[in-house]
Amino acid sequence: MTDYATHRFSVGQQVVRSGDTPKSWDVIGLIAGPAGAEYRLRAGNSETIVGERELAYTTAATNVVRTVVH
């Protein structure tokens, strides 16, 4: 990705990690990492930070992007 590209995922969106079991993660934050965009994810009580290239959109028909109010 180039520096001017927009990020693929938004806070509140559900994603899946490549190579992960088929569970979905909620995006809870966007971080500017040393190698590009990184995302803070939460699934239940688990949290992790992963690079943008490790993520994909969920394919669940019920996946809806939730509005986050600050």
**Helix fraction?**
under 10%
Rg, alpha carbons: 12 Å
Please state the oligomeric state of the protein chains shown: single chain
Low-confidence stretches: 61-70
**Strand fraction band?**
35-45%
Structure class: mainly beta
Please state the overall shape, judged from the principal axes of the Cα atoms: globular
Query: How far do the termini sit from each other?
Result: 29 Å
Q: What is the tally of helical segments? A: 0
Q: H/E element string?
A: EEEEE
Q: How many beta-strand runs?
A: 5
Sheet with most strands: 5 strands, antiparallel
Task: Kindly report the average pLDDT value.
Answer: 78
Major beta sheet, strand line-up: 4-3-2-1-5
Question: What's a concise summary of this model?
Answer:
The protein has 70 residues and is an all-beta fold.
Overview of the structural elements:
- The chain is mainly β.
- It has strands at about 15, 25-35, 35-45, 45-50, 55.
- Strands 4-3-2-1-5 form a 5-stranded antiparallel beta sheet, with no helix packed on it.
- A hairpin with a 2-residue loop joins strand 3 and strand 4 (about 45-50).
- Mean pLDDT is about 80; it is low at about 60-70.
Any descriptors?
about 70 residues; mainly beta; 5 strands; globular; disordered C terminus
Write the layout of secondary structure elements.
Elements: E1 14-17, E2 25-33, E3 36-43, E4 46-51, E5 55-57
Antiparallel strand pairs: 1-2, 1-5, 2-3, 3-4
